[in-house]
Backbone:
């Protein structure tokens, strides 16, 4: 047994209102720079829908993730090492910018500088790639809320084979939102695909990161990740990905997406797992067994043997305690209501989801039934094939049984708690029908519905004696580092070349550059691209800002 | 003049090459990349890039065979002059043509595809001129030389001169006697060598051969150096690696 700790997330999909707050705050924090305008480390997609980038789940086309070969060995679906090196000059499976979308901004300047005229001036969209006028054709959430669904949703890779049934039942449409970040997989195929070895998994907390100094821009990680959660920064020529907000997590704060989530549906905590068992679990023959195999990889943090092994492996005491209180462990292993996204990709993803009961509830309510009654709910879960089948394709490689089981638990919780809320005697048999006790149901309700901040996030701070240096304390100038604030911006070899500058300084510089730039898209040797999320009328329009103070 | 061109220039270029790389690696690891533009455009790249890269690898191999390996060695191995010459010309022209065709597609792409063009820096342009110039001069000299029917045997002049540079006993006279085509090719190559460490060509030295043998998943410990702020002087962590 080789115990390792993994920082993981669970999202409770029933509570997601699709507001995209998480995406926007994440973007402001991490991808507001030029070269990554099209990048959303966190994106929220409406399902059924094509997702972002378009149809990324179609692995017959993109060949992401792992597969088991004829001899039962785990291999990269996109081909082994030699094949990767031979195709290094032109990656055959790299999504093009059109598969994401062409980022744009608007000609805001015309709004304020146009002469007095009869017609209202219009801010026309301009491509952030070419700087030319453009027609907006797609975006990261173009098919939000099933927009254009009759035409677009049919291209959802997950409804291949059941298109007819879905269309047939379109009067009973269902939809839900799926927020996605990098899965910080236990068996990351992005890292395995990287020829330079620049992508690594941190041995302390399992966060998967790209070493920007080692990345050489071979782009194999982009095609290797089945979730398409590594992105290529086309200005710096380096791969970038979700960092699980490591500077925050290291000091015990939740990630930005979780902290700002309006639905408060994200849970963050540790799980302990046995690193020696990962490969065997990922190689499980039958796709339907992958979910259980991954659950078996996790260790019970209350087991004294595990605690002993964890201590021997150098995991500090407060981390073990955090693992014991972890909401992730509770939701995955104790209540067994969380499911992984696409276990069939065999990367052992570590962002899990509680599938939504709402499609079922909605149908019940719309057809005039009592959507709180456990009998009705259980019957509907059985009867409504399509939502369950769809969820199964998302979370269990197509096996409806585990999804059914989870939905029954959620339904039981609903009915059981109604009785309590109405002051009636709670009925133990409702809980029993979902294989739980009333007490368990109540505990689960507290975690899922009350969801107090300190229950949602159990994040032990990193053990580094310089943790002070990780915080951005307001008491000290964050520009005060060796080399001074004169750095940042561009070195002679393209955007941001030169020595490493602290993230905060880099961001500060880039924003300042962009806000005072003169062109929309400029030659790459100048860092002056403008971004949708910032003020980006060209330059500093007269009178809009107070005059610069002479210093 | 001879000394200047065939002794000083080479040594200067080599020095710049070596020192430049060391400096760039230390100062600018972040800028050390291929700066791929595949994201913008794939149709032309899919054709041009492999053609160019595999071509230039062959060309490099050919230069090792023709310039680094002395004539006496190949003769000792029983390869007669005419056989060698035939092979060298056929393979060389083939590889050169491949490279040039690939480069032509890539340059055309740079120029015509909007996003790729706007992502082209001045640095790239200089690099393209030097690179394509060197290739054209080299290929041109070979083809012309063979068309005029008495090809110059560069293994008597250029090759020993080139090796002599590395023996530290330069023999500039050998090179001074070579035809103009070879001289121009060599000069433009030195210019390219000198510019190399400052261009995106550095990515050649990160050819990921290690990938073939390393384990798939890389684990690394949290690097205490990478906070958002470098520690102040006197406050560095003791166990910094
Ligand atoms: S989801 Fe994240 S960790 Fe997993 S393969 Fe993709 S980028 Fe790597
Ligand atoms: S902020 Fe929360 S509720 Fe809003 S879209 Fe993101 S995950 Fe859903």
Residues:
């Amino acid at each position: 047994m080789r115990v390792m700790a993994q920082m993981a997330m669970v999202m409770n999909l029933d509570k997601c209102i699709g507001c995209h707050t998480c995406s926007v705050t994440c973007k402001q924090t991490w991808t507001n720079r030029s070269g990554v305008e099209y990048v959303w480390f966190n994106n929220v997609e409406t399902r059924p829908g094509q997702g972002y980038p378009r149809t990324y789940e179609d692995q017959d086309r993109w060949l992401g993730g792992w597969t088991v070969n004829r001899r039962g060995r785990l291999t990269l679906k996109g081909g082994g090492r030699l094949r990767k090196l031979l195709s290094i000059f032109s990656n055959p499976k790299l999504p093009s910018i059109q598969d994401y979308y062409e980022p744009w901004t608007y000609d805001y300047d015309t709004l304020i500088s146009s002469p007095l005229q009869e017609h209202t001036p219009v801010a026309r969209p301009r491509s952030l790639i070419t700087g030319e006028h453009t027609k907006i054709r797609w975006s990261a959430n173009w098919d939000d809320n099933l927009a254009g669904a009759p035409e677009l949703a049919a291209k959802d890779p997950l409804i291949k084979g059941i298109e007819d049934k879905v269309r047939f039942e379109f009067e009973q449409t269902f939809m839900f939102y799926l927020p996605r970040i990098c899965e910080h997989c236990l068996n990351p195929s992005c890292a395995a695909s990287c020829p330079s070895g620049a992508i690594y998994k941190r041995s302390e907390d399992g966060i998967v990161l790209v070493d920007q100094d080692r990345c050489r821009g071979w782009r194999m990680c982009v095609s290797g990740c089945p979730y398409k959660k590594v992105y290529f920064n086309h200005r710096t020529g380096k791969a970038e990905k979700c960092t699980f907000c490591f500077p925050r997590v290291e000091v015990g704060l939740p990630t930005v997406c979780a902290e700002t989530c309006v639905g408060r549906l994200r849970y963050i905590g540790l799980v302990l797992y046995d690193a020696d068992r990962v490969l065997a679990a990922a190689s499980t023959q039958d796709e339907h067994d992958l979910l259980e195999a991954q659950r078996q990889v996790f260790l019970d943090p209350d087991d004294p043997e595990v605690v002993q092994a964890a201590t021997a492996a150098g995991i500090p005491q407060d981390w073990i305690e955090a693992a014991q209180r972890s909401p992730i462990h509770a939701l995955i292993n104790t209540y067994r209501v969380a499911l992984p996204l696409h276990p069939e990709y065999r990367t052992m993803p570590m962002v899990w989801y509680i599938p939504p009961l709402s499609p079922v509830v909605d149908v019940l309510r719309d057809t005039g039934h009592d959507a709180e009654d456990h009998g009705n709910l259980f019957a509907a879960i059985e009867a409504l094939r399509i939502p369950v089948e769809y969820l199964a394709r998302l979370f269990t490689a197509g096996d409806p049984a585990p999804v059914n089981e989870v939905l029954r638990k959620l339904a039981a919780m609903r009915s059981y708690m109604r009785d309590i809320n109405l002051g009636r005697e709670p009925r133990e048999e409702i809980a029993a029908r979902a294989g739980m006790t009333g007490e368990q149901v109540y505990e689960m309700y507290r975690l899922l519905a009350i969801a107090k901040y300190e229950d949602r996030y159990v994040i032990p701070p990193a053990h580094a004696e310089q943790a002070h240096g990780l915080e951005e304390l307001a008491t000290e100038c964050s520009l005060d580092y060796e080399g001074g604030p004169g750095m940042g911006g561009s070195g002679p070899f393209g955007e941001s070349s030169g020595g490493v500058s602290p993230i905060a300084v880099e961001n500060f510089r880039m924003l300042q550059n962009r806000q005072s730039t003169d062109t929309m898209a400029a030659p790459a040797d100048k860092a002056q691209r403008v971004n949708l999320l910032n003020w980006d009328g060209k330059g500093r329009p007269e009178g809009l800002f107070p005059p610069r103070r002479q210093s | 003049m001879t000394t200047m061109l065939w002794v000083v220039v080479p040594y200067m270029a080599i020095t710049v090459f070596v020192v430049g790389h060391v400096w760039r690696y230390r100062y600018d690891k972040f800028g050390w990349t291929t700066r791929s533009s595949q994201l913008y455009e794939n149709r032309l790249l899919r054709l041009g890039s492999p053609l160019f890269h595999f071509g230039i690898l062959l060309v490099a191999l050919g230069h090792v065979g023709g310039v680094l390996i002395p004539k006496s060695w190949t003769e000792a191995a029983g390869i007669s002059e005419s056989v060698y010459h035939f092979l060298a010309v056929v393979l060389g022209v083939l590889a050169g043509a491949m490279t040039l065709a690939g480069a032509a597609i890539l340059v055309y792409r740079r120029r015509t595809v909007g996003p790729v063009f706007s992502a082209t820096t001045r640095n790239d342009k200089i690099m393209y001129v030097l690179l394509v110039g060197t290739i054209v001069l080299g290929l041109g000299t070979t083809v012309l030389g063979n068309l005029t029917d008495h090809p110059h045997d560069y293994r008597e002049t250029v090759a020993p001169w080139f090796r002599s540079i590395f023996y530290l006993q330069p023999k500039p006279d050998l090179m001074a006697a070579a035809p103009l085509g070879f001289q121009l090719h060599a000069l433009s190559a030195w210019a390219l060598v000198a510019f190399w460490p400052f261009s995106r060509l550095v990515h050649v030295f990160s050819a990921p051969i290690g990938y073939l043998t390393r384990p798939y998943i890389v684990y690394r410990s949290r690097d205490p150096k990478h906070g958002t702020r470098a520690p102040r002087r006197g406050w560095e962590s003791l166990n910094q690696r």
